[in-house]
Amino acid sequence: MQRRGTSISRGKFLKMMGAAGVAGSTLSVLSCQPNTSATGGGGGSGGGPEEKELALYNWSDYVAGSTIPGFQKETGIKVTQDFFASNEDLLGKLQAGATGYDVIVPSDYMVAIMVKSDVIQKLDKSKIPNIKNVGENYMGLSYDPNNEYSLPYQWGTTGILYNKKEVGKLDSSWDAMWDKQFEGKMAMLADSRETIGAALYKLGYSVNSKNQDQLQEAEAELKKQQPLLRGYFASTEVRPLVMNGDILLGHVYSGDAFLAMSENEDLDYLIPNPRATRWTDNMSIPNGAPHPDNANKFINYILDAKVGAALSNYTYYNTPNEASLPDIDPALKDLPGYTLASDIFERLEVIEDVGKTTREYERIFTEVKSA
Ligand code: SPD
Q1: pTM of the model
Q2: What atom in ligand 1 is closest to the CA of residue 108?
Q3: pLDDT at 23 over 80
């Protein structure tokens, strides 16, 4: 599959970008200055005109090649980009006092936690007319019922990318990720809620369980699984491991699975039974953002129909932008699992804020990783 309007495949583009695929690294696009200081100096919150700068803190490999240059061309605003590998890393960074970021990209449950923790600010919707393009199914979701603090960026699922030529067609459960015959040939996500979620799903429980007994059972499952794993990685790191045959099965976000499958026909993506996760990532503005006006402009730009289509055609994730749908690459829409049949959609769960039980999830994941 080729990205629209380009003559290179996404795989080749990634190689050209080099560091862009590495979670947790810093890539300053169109500028060499990472922007994580508290000084900002933009004057946005002080009322004066803002500097022509914007600092984006994003998941790795989550903008198209055209996204940031297009914004700079349209607005004259120079964008720097840093990367985080999980929602918990993003929250930790903000709570540790990083105030240099203008736009961040938290998932569903993390928006709720960030509102509660008072680390994000209300959007200025008068500056985001493209809000009209967002499909109604992606507005007013439980984590931000009036979209005061967030607007959707991309959505997808979490499942298993695997080599069907080597492993054979998997049954539809999570069990393969615990199968001793694949010892050393499997990886799970370095994402506490997703990985504990996989164990909860395997046991037939909800990803949002607050039940101590269920969580203990999940912990025991993960401790059984841990010695069988190559490790816990960002999804963008699992993808090449499976593509290169270093491992046979990997817990991944759907876009990484679809990208891998489009370049290696031996691979397949399973959204296991009985349940798996459907998630939405969102754009928000942290408190203390140095350039909030620029941030609202950037959010509006992402919600443009063509910009949104180019984004999904690059990331291989789904778009919440209804106006973008006609321009989504038909080959992408045809990939099994990209367009969700209603029976699959209905068995997917959305990760929610579990309140005080969050600490228990974090304790479990820390212990499992070091077991
Ligand atoms: N490479 C970008 C991946 C973004 C995935 N966000 C997923 C959140 C799942 N809870």
Answers
A1: 0.89
A2: 10
A3: no
